[in-house]
Amino acid sequence: MKKNKLLVLLIPALFAVGCGENNSGNDYNLPENGKDMAFTDAKAKFSNTLKEMDSTDALGVKIEDAAIKLNVKTFENKNLQTNVNVELSDFDLFFGVKGLTSATKFSEFEASASTGIKGNLTIENTNDSSANINKTLDVSAAAYIKDGNAYVDASNENLIALLKDMANVTLENTKFYVPVPADDEATSYPLLKDGMLESTFDKVYTKITSSIPTTTFNDITTTFMTCKSYNDKEWGIQLSADKEGILSYARKTIEDSMSNLGDMMTSEQKTSAIESGMQQVEEMLTKSNFDHVNAGIIFNDKQLKTIFVDVKAGAYVSEENSDGDTTTSNETNVNFEVKTYVNFLYGNDVQMNFPSFDDYKVLTTQK
After folding, report:
1. What is the 3-state secondary structure (H, E, C) of the chain?
2. Is residue 171 a contact partner of residue 154, using CB atoms and an 8 Å limit?
3. Which of 117, 142, 222, 334 has the smallest number of Cβ neighbours within 10 A?
4. Is the Cβ–Cβ distance between 24 and 241 less than 8 Å?
């Protein structure tokens, strides 16, 4: 017999779907000098932006100085089994691609990616101390796609040592490439076509809005979302929620549901149901270690410009397995914090900076 119980906090991270009051006091916010936008105006602007982005041939994404924390704990019968902690104090990433609208086959694509990571990693295993890890991270790597080959630069000395220590992997060549098989007949080019982004958004939007009652959907977006315009071209959307705001919204929702029952329940029964429901919501928030989510997107009429994220939340999963008279409970508790800005580049601003590939060899590994 198996019993599953899942308590995961799901925040409605829906953008371009509603405008309302900003409830967050965090640092990551839309600029204050904007004007509130109506939902119909925001959706129309978003559609126009997607139409313009369908003609994007070169796209780049850049993250600098992101701060990331992740902690994962597992328990068996309430006893700690593993404790994994990752803290990245400085995470940088660049990714660029050219040929989204012009490439007629894979060999005409060009892509470049590089990353740098600084931080700490610890792994505690209460059943096997030999599996414990405590590492200072200061690694970098790069990857490229050019002329039909995928290249990887893993020559960073710290990365080489980390792969050996954690995965017992030794790269015979720290600069290597993998030939990519030729396109099959099912591949359609160009990959980015007119109307593709707008059509995809419309499908997702329709699926989301059709699965949620209209009143509930409007209440959520009005409570937790903000839309602002800054001039004739730039505008932004922001999602903001904290624990207090979630609890306040949950209470109002439950109270409204009880009031709609009329005389089907006594006043005492309604009060009891409200408090029981609130207890479950608070338990979910507490076990998932939810504190706040604050995220937004800034656009102009032609392009997505910036995404900002400030999240402190988590997830809690429990499972019980019964075998005869023996029942084993397993729990996983995940906590994470992310603070970052993601900036987007287009056209000539996407600088690939390919190195010479003369010293790259075909991939081989030794274990």
Report:
1. CEEEEEEECCCCCCCCCCCCCCCCCCCCCCCCCCEECCHHHHHHHHHHHHHHHCCCCEEEEEEEEEEEEEEEEEEECCEEEEEEEEEEEEEEEEEEEECCCCCCCHHHCEEEEEEEEEEEEEEEECCCHHHCEEEEEEEEEEEEEECCEEEEECCCHHHHHHHHHHHCCEECCCEEEEECCCCCCCCCCCCCCCCHHHHHHHHHHHHHHHCCCHHHHHHHHHHHEEEEECCCCCEEEEEEEEHHHHHHHHHHHHHHHHHCCHHHCCHHHHHHHHHHHHHHHHHHHHHCCCCEEEEEEEECCCCEEEEEEEEEEEEEEEEEEEECCEEEEEEEEEEEEEEEEEEEEEHHHCCCCCCCCCCCEECCEEC
2. yes
3. 222
4. yes
pLDDT in tens, 163-202: 988 888 888 889 999 988 776 666 788 889 988 998 998 8
Q: Tokens 């900002």 label which residue?
A: 308
Q: Tokens for 352?
A: 């690939």
